[in-house]
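Checklist before submission:
- one chain only
- standard amino acids only
- sequence pasted in full

Submission:
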Amino acid sequence: MSTLEKLDRAMVKNDSLICVGLDPDWSKMPEEYTRDSAIENREEKIYSFLTTIVDITGEGVCSYKIQKAFFDLYPQGHSLLKNIIQYIHLKYSDIPVFVDCKIGDIDNTMEAYGSLIFDELDADGVVLNPYMGEDVLNIVRNRPEKAGIVLVKTSNDSSVQDLPALDGRKMWEHVLDLTVNEWNTAQNLIPVLSSLAEYSTSPRSSIPDDIPILLAGYGAQGGDATNITDFLDSKKRGVFINSSRKILYPYSTEDKNWRDNVAVELNRMKDEVNKFRNE
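Returned file contents:
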């Protein structure tokens, strides 16, 4: 089963468009993990925390996205990341796992990244920075069962993506056109769009029905689900919304009931998205 097939099936099975970002921030984790914990065993504590998050959320999400930078901080971070992906695959084999490291380089460097992300870590997809051109896409073009999540329109204020391209369109509009109409030869690309941006027309009008969208900016960045219908496909899915901090840390670090708070926040977000999705 391809990554895009897994993603769509998980949306249906769990009635969810939610992607949980597994970004371990030591300063925000519950005190039961961080209290009196020596630096050398932090990876063990993070593994326990994140697998608990997966256990809490696994039946209510359609995917997970893991920010690699949070794992690179630790000496055994590579093994930790691999073990988290393996845990999800074993426990919830129908839920895809994406690695977010926003890579984009020349062909031989990208192939090294491909070997790392797909062959070594066994991720289902990776976030790609397309601004070095078509070479960036080869690692997923040559692996059609995997997925490439392409940065098109992000939610950070300092982005240059609104600058005009040579054809007069905004840069992100040009990149979106390339992503869906030229680069997607393996039918496994997913454009990233911001929930905070203002669009002159519904984004889905320029994106074919069979291409899913990753919607960025929800939660801690200020976005919400009120405009979700602008991104849905004809089956009222086809878009998934990432939330990291809002779901991972909706509690004070000393709260002993933090697990309940995570479950409540996930269900609140899922209900909110489904409410606007089904209107």
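Reviewer check: The chain has a mean pLDDT of 92.
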